[in-house]
Amino acid sequence: MDISTASLKHLLSLGESSQVEFKLALGREGKGELPKDFWRSYSAMANAYGGWIILGIKEKNNTFSVAGISDIDKLQRELFSLLNNRDHISANLISDTDVVTHIIEDKKVLAIKIKQASRKEKPVFLTKNPFGNTYIRLYDGDRLCSDEQVKRMLSEQLNDSLDNEILSPHFSFTEDIEHSTLNTYRNRLSAHKPDHPFLDFEPFEFFKKIGGWRKDRFSGKEGITLAGLLMFGKFEAIQDHFPHYFIDYRELSENRWDERIFPDGTWSGNLFDFYRKVYQKLVSEIKIPFNLQGDQRIDETPVHEALREALVNTLVHANYAEKTPVLIEKSGSSFRFRNPGILRITRDEFFSGGVHDCRNSLLHQMFLLIGLGERAGSGVPKILKGCDIAHWRKPILEEKLDQPQYTTLIFEPSIKDTQLNYSQSDSVSESSRDQAGTKSGPSRDQAGTKSGLSSSQININSELLALLQQIEDELSIQELMNLVGRTNRTKFRKQYIQPLMELGLLEMTIPNKPTSSKQRYRKTNK
């Protein structure tokens, strides 16, 4: 996108930013010359989000004004000569159309557009040595990258996928893989694709087929892949390879954790078990309207799909060698998905979809095999669709480019909507009613549900419905909590007891003494 003269004038009043840099560029003769610090800004912007360097602008006391450049042609020749000199700069990201002359106050200034470098082009550095000569743009300044940051860029440049590495033979399928996790995954595949040929193999061959074990045809080396260890491994084995590996889920209310899932020794600590545990927590409070496809009830909404895709996306794009843990947070109606590592594509490509550059391709394939995640860069458009249907704001994408690096995707409800909700009619459409009645006998309105709910009462979340269907007698609040595995009594009252009582589906046995120690709850006849 070009920058207009009017826009330039406006930028002068705003000053410098992460994507705008002003330089005087008069040179020794005062006619125009590239300043020496131009290349630091060029490197910094290329390694961040790109931007504009405007030459011919002077600064005094943080105020910018036009100085002008008398010999624009000389300056442009110098620019393109040095851009194509690999002893001077590592990559040329500027074309003729990216350099535009503007006339402001009868003086010429030069606006130079710096593109964001691709993963394969980073790091963009001065001279021939990236160490000590690579910069990144943070806020309104050019910061020298540490050797660790440079090594990270070089690693990302060289490795299309980080998780196909074959581990040391000291990692054993028998000892280091959580076989119950692998069996659960296999059952998930069986449910998703009952006739899949991989299901005919015994466990070790099955593990190989899905990418958990690989043989390098050139070196002959074979063993567990990094993806196999992350997806199905035991926590201790994963930490032997990645000492900083940690995955964390938190539910927060009023600045405290109500619930938390992390490797605490009570479960495997691998990615697949983490996904299963966390996904259920994420969607536990989403209302599911009654909806039919054919004669089958649809128990999922686009919001479910959006949160599932965001969770899978977080896990398959994380750089597990980083010190920053994977962190998923749920706070009221807001969600945060944080993974170590920054985007491998531009922000525009991220939101528009169609560009696929997964940091852990084998992990992605493992999720895809059982129907989780999306192919070829279509996942984020699905996330946006779910947010739009739910009337949520467009997700916010945050990246931290300095150390430690991480990416965060934030979901928030709209200003008007303070409750997690999937907006759709609570009642069944007439066509759905007719279809349900003709294809499967009586419709739900006629036959009722297992718990005696009419169609107008179905718009409750799946966990409320699951609890209701388990109540056969009068139960105490602790007994009810045990049915769904909840431990926080206050939150359970708010999220389960109160909604069911307001719907008239649950009642107290001692209604005149709500806080009685003998209080029990039972289903109503509705």
Automatic annotation (TrEMBL):
InterPro entries named in the record: Fic-like_C, RecG_C_sf, Schlafen_AlbA_2_dom, Schlafen_AlbA_2_dom_sf
Domain of life: Bacteria
Identification of the protein by name: Uncharacterized protein
PANTHER family: GLPR-RELATED TRANSCRIPTIONAL REPRESSOR (PTHR30595), SCHLAFEN ALBA-2 DOMAIN-CONTAINING PROTEIN (PTHR30595:SF6)
Residue segments, region Disordered: 422-454
Biased composition annotated in UniProt, kind: Polar residues: 434-454
Residues in Schlafen AlbA-2 domain copies: 16-143
Pfam families: Fic-like_C (PF21247), HATPase_c_4 (PF13749), SLFN_AlbA_2 (PF04326)
Gene3D superfamilies reported for this sequence: 3.30.565.60, Schlafen, AAA domain
Ranges where the Filamentation induced by cAMP protein Fic-like C-terminal domain occurs: 466-523
